[in-house]
Amino acid sequence: MVTSLLPSTQRVLLRRLALEQSENRVPSLIAGVLRDGETAWVDSRGLVNGTPSTTDTQYRIGSITKTFVGVLVMRLRDEGRLDLADKLDDHLPGTALGNRSVGEILSQCSGLTAEPAGQWWERTQGGTPEELLATVDSSAVRPTPRHQFHYSNVGFGILGELVARIRGAAWHEVMEREILRPLEMRRTTMMPVEPHAQGLAVHPWADVVLDEPAEDAGAMAPAGQLWSTFDDMARWARFVLGDTDEVLHPDTVAEMRVPGSVDDGLEWRAGYGLGLQLLRHNKRCLAGHSGSMPGFLASVWADPAEREAVIFMANTTAGVTGALGTDLLDALAEHEPRIPEPWRPQPDVDMGLLELTGEWYWGPSPHVLRVLSNGLLDLRPGHGKRGRASRFRPNGDGTWTGLDGYYAGEILRIGRDADGTPNHLNLNTFIFTRTPYAPAAPVPGGVSGWRPARD
């Protein structure tokens, strides 16, 4: 098994994996962590066909399939073939969901029912897209507010057909051509290909197992059909982290990681972006997806801030705890914390930017503007205070555009004296000056002046 961690860290991770497999009676379980785009540790417990599973053993990944469908939809958006604000009727007319937007369906807040009509789709042979769309009548739309999270497998069946209609080919053929081949994910398939695990259910009161079926879900396949391996899921984790190999622009993947709906109220520990599940854990904001189908459980979670990810795959209907992935990330952080790279002066800083740096005031509130090593500007509250902070990239005409935070997309302009000396920052009408309420500055400058307080 691949590893680049200290033996002591490996033992901690292996023990957590072994406890999960043993105490929860999981037939086979493989798990691993990534750091900086590389598999730092991976190991397995239990057997598949009499031998330990490897990073090339296929497991069914269930709803992780939805993340691939999300990418296909976002590719269409980036090409101008659709807009996330488009109504479903613009592309798939005739359903009771026709007045809901593509973006609402993609972010799990369309109000559509969780499961399709008829028998349990995960255990039965799937039907055609036309049959699925015919079931999306008024009874399939729930009366929840449209901005409220409501997980829907049906929604991703619909999105798969949306991709097929626009591309003129089955969604999985489009996925193969536009995602799997460019990313060299050769072991991610619609149906199992040896070597693969058999899906199993473990009896709750005896150490015996039951073979689970692996039906073709048909029109519901975009919700959970795929089979994959640890190695392919590691590549997919790197994709979610931003290593997209031109399948999508990294900015689009970052957009997919932005919360669109939250499924646990005020706590906001879990939510949904654009085809990606989101999970907040300690100081991490993880993006990826969990997956379950009869006989299988899987998860892939990526932390873009730390450039780390965790994956597990198991052939059991139930039993793997949701904390396994985050426990492994916690163990990695505790037992092998990152060593910061040494600081070095940057050789190619634009020296003309130095005059912009230092303290600026929005009213009486101090802020600090810094030049980052990548040529961006960083503006945030001074003295360690919390508040609005953003990075800005140059536009080539003397203005700057906010990249993140409150000022994302907003324009920063530099106000100057007659001799060219910067005297204020104009950030979408917010004026920052070198001194609090500078008299000669635009609003809120020009006030009458400071005075002693009076009783």
Automatic annotation (TrEMBL):
Residues 22-327 form the Beta-lactamase-related domain. Residues 350-434 form the DUF7586 domain. It comes from the Bacteria. Pfam families: Beta-lactamase (PF00144), DUF7586 (PF24491). This is CubicO group peptidase (Beta-lactamase class C family).
